[in-house]
Amino acid sequence: MPCRPALTRIPRAHIEKEELKPDDLLIQGEKGGMLAGSVIRRAWRSARKEVLGAHEFESPLARRVYDLRHTCLTNWLNVGVPPATVAEWAGDSVPVLLATYARRVNGQLDDLKKRIEDAGALPHPAGPEAV
Fold it and tell me: Which of 65, 83, 119, 122 has its CB surrounded by the most CB atoms within 10 Å?
């Protein structure tokens, strides 16, 4: 799952401390197997209820754990990470990424206009004879 580097350090430290191997489970179920989806959903619901206000809790905000992926990818696109890079990091194709997220990218218009203007700028004339 895409994640901020600062947050990625937390499970990586746990993996290192516990000396987990690539096939080991980060969090195990009651009998050592996969954690049940219902357990994850209940824990997520409890966490949301604990940290969100009543209005936010009732809203679609991060209703599913998977919604964090959408937030992360949208943030990467909004800060200007190229779509091809975001798609690669997310394990998506560029067409799938753009079909899903293109309408969510915002806040870049002024910077993009300046970049277009700067790219087409003519050099300043050198001295009075150039006028």
Answer: 83
Cβ-count burial of 86 within 10 angstroms (0-12 exposed, 13-18 middle, 19+ buried)?
A: buried
* Per-residue pLDDT tens digits for 17-49: 999 999 999 888 888 899 999 999 999 999 999
Residue the block writes with tokens 């080991």: 24
Q: Which of 62, 68, 65 has its CA nearest to residue 2? A: 68
Q: What is the pLDDT of residues 109-127, one digit of tens each?
A: 777 788 888 888 788 777 6
Q: Tell me the angle at which helices 67-78 and 94-101 cross, rounded to the nearest 10 degrees.
A: 100
d(CA 18, CA 20): 5
Residue-wise DSSP of 17-53: HHT--TTS-SS--TTSSPPPHHHHHHHHHHHHHHHS-
Kindly state the tokens that stand for 4: 């901020």
pTM beyond 0.85: no
